UniProtKB/TrEMBL annotation, chains A, B:
Gene3D superfamilies: Chorismate lyase-like, Winged helix-like DNA-binding domain superfamily/Winged helix DNA-binding domain
Origin superkingdom: Bacteria
CDD domains: WHTH_GntR
Protein name: HTH gntR-type domain-containing protein
Species of the source: Streptomyces albireticuli
Keyword Ubl conjugation appears in the UniProt entry: no
Amino acid sequence: MHPQRLGYREIAAALRQDIRAGRYPPASVLPPEPELAQQYGASRSLVNRAMSLLAAEGLVRPRQGRGTIVTWLPPMLHSAARYSRTTRERDGNRGAFDSDVKAIGLEPQHEITVERAVPPAEVADALGVAHDELCLVRRRRLLASGIPVRINASWFPLEIAESTVLEEPGPVINGGIKSALSNLGYRQTTASERIVPSRLPTEAEASVLEISPERSVTEIVHVGQTAEGRSVEVTTTVAPAHYLVIEHEFPLT
Amino acid sequence: MHPQRLGYREIAAALRQDIRAGRYPPASVLPPEPELAQQYGASRSLVNRAMSLLAAEGLVRPRQGRGTIVTWLPPMLHSAARYSRTTRERDGNRGAFDSDVKAIGLEPQHEITVERAVPPAEVADALGVAHDELCLVRRRRLLASGIPVRINASWFPLEIAESTVLEEPGPVINGGIKSALSNLGYRQTTASERIVPSRLPTEAEASVLEISPERSVTEIVHVGQTAEGRSVEVTTTVAPAHYLVIEHEFPLT
DNA sequence: GAGTGGTCTAGACCACAGA
DNA sequence: CTGTGGTCTAGACCACTCG
């Protein structure tokens, strides 16, 4: 099949190209490693090492006993402007996510849970609540044909969110979270974001996103404030690195 | 030395901890792989695989014949607010970078080149010039004790920058680029940025940043515009992923 | 049970840097 | 020349999934 002996980087490159070219579509299963080894005239160890590269890049997700699933999603999903401020505020990206995923022939899925919990210290500080204070948290997990693409957690002080529309379970809040908060008398006028482009996932994140522990993630922490300077919403986003592109625009003084 | 047999992830974890704890400081050289193999009671193959993990994370840079150099830099350099808008505009981050690097006991270095070149299509489009039009480009490479930390390229239309202070070589432009452009009659009022948190480097980038091809990078494309909507400056930043943290604040409408 | 990926070894050869 | 990391093999055993 392949005339020359290839190195594991070259095997990875070949598979990478096949995947991006659509020869192995997203959510499909790659041929087993022994078969690929034969195709490329290499040992299975070598193919396995090539696979580790692709897994770390996020193109692929090997699972013991089940085979290796293609987790690469074409640029459409990452691409520009969709995650811009206006869209995000309008509907929490739900619509944009759904149409992006459908556009590449996959099935968008949402999992939403609403609960009361003590936020991590970083979030508590941003919200200005005590480290042991219960808050309301709305968690979402977005998937494309079973591939986890992003997780969100939106935190609100109980004082604000208790027994409001925010505490209702269900996939959509009419007009979005910021609109709902505004109706409750907490209109946000400024927001700040901290972006960590790449870090290793926590164990919990790796498990929920179904990625290997060495696959890095991008984290965005969004804090919304009212005109009085009160932080009323902290939303954290964690996605496997490369599933996100971020755009923003700002005035220069 | 180590009672139990460790897996390569565990060996990597042990080394990771040692590095972060300062047992192997930045820019120092790790013990050779055979020695580590003996320490951990494992084969060299295993240690080598652990090293691949650390290299992909960017904690370490193994070089044939020379040994494995620690390239991890403590959070101080990444940490918040330093790369915020105000600082970046003030002095192109030069001061902040120098003091960050010195604070961890390393030597900051800058390499600056100024030349005329045809920009990549993406930059040409952003500047609104033809794809074959010569532009002025100021390139910088920032290093900490020989470890490349970041590369920048600032592009300007020749029409604006020809024979101005922007074309002078040398490390600093008094007051920064935006100030210089303002003095030339091109005051910027808005900027937009596109952030690609994680992607594989081009060959050229991997070479200039001295990273392996599978070590991902973060890219920021910054476009500055005048009140008339003319793009007068495009600055691209590429850094090994995890050397950057980004913060910004914006008004909500 | 059969087939998948996950891990590991022992040893080998190579490319490169430096004394 | 020696010692470094880079690559590769052949084979082994394990853990997991599914029929």
